[in-house]
Model the fold of this input.
Amino acid sequence: MVQEAEEWYAYLRKKHDDETRTEIVVVALVAFVAVLIGAALSFALVFHTFVNLTYLLIGLVLIPAAAGVATWAIRRRRRFTFAELGSLVAKMKSGQASAEDGLRLADAMHDALLAMKKGKMDSAFTNGVVAFLLVAVFGLNIAVGLLTGAIVYLYFRFEALRDYENESRRYEESKKELLQSL
Amino acid sequence: MDRPDLYVVARFLDVLYGNGQPMKKTNIQMRVGLNYARFSQYLEWLLAHGLVQLAAGQEGDRYELSPKGIESYHILVDWIRGTLHGMKP
Done:
């Protein structure tokens, strides 16, 4: 039981770190492309001249970097969801755990699982933005890109929300059944 | 009590199962860390559900897990084990 909890904890931490890295890269990339599109639009629609090249270069570095740092900070805060799980696993390993600690561990693992599923809702937004960029940049059609992005976002969000609610309900019902069976 | 807290029930089962011997009310109350009113409610619930019984042939009122209580403790531990296993990635 302790080994399983420990493996689960290690898996969650690794997954969280991997996802954080991916998300930072995607967000920085999106910010980079957004700065480029902004510069192109300002040239085409407003100024009819290139924006100052120095400002553009600074923007291309600073804005994606700031977006990446903000993403890292948000993801880092979420990591504290796993803190309780870590201390419970340590207590279980010490061999002084009770059935109540086991219940708390199951709850903490379930909370971490839900946090992961909730994270998928954020990924839905990233997926939508990526879909928009792909269609808008390669398909050269911003309107279709917007529509595609919205559909992709809504689909992934719907799936993530359904998964989240199912897991939450399943666990609560399981606990209720346990109490009734005692 | 309509729906007792599973954590508290687990604590009672833990204390009585771990002790292995019938226990006085005061000792159980101290170990589960509840105020007297709450403790009495839970003890009544456990007695009503047949998880705890008065120990026979003991001096004063001493309580112990009934066979159903021992079985419930094992059900609880199995549930925890099964749940943790089910969440395994």
